[in-house]
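Protein in question quoted for reference:
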Amino acid sequence: MTDDENRVAGLLLAAGGGRRLGGRPKALLPHRGRLLVEHAAGALRAGGCASVHVVLGARGEEVRARAELPDCVLVDNPEWEHGMGTSLRAGLDALAGTGARAALVLLVDQPGIGPEAVARVRHAYRSPRSLVSAAYDGVRGHPVLFGAAHWAGVAAAATGDRGARAYLKEHADAVELVECGDVAEAYDIDTEADLTHLE
């Protein structure tokens, strides 16, 4: 691993309140004997991210009390109710000044995405201008890597629940797609029906 690769930080967005799940925060959902937030943080770490920042919001104090997140930096997003964009901004703000050259962003509600997909996207990092996305049968998905040169633009464009979607669309020609469909499944845990994915 190069010195620059060592500076790819994991950024886990785990602040949502689970509106469509009856107000159950996704971070606290159980899966294979652990909480979803623990699974996702573990995937970032096992995928090679030297540091992991976790953005918390809904029932943040409970997540802090219950979740085992060793060596993770916990970032509070008091504006979490205004959508994922606020969590992305909070996370990128927290990474500023840490020496990180890129942020590899993963969502807490995608337990089908593990260390293999994280590692593939991280290995595609080349410079602070890198813009990389996992793809599933050619369709862009998560995780996504933003080189530090993009952070200001991503933060400015991150509104509501769209996160970085507008920025990625605007810079589509610069996005390197890394196929991950053979090692990960990109389903979301959004509704009661989706809970069948949890074990």
About this structure: The chain has a mean pLDDT of 93. The helical segments are 36-46, 60-66, 84-95, 115-123, 151-157, 165-170. DSSP finds six helices and nine strands in the chain.
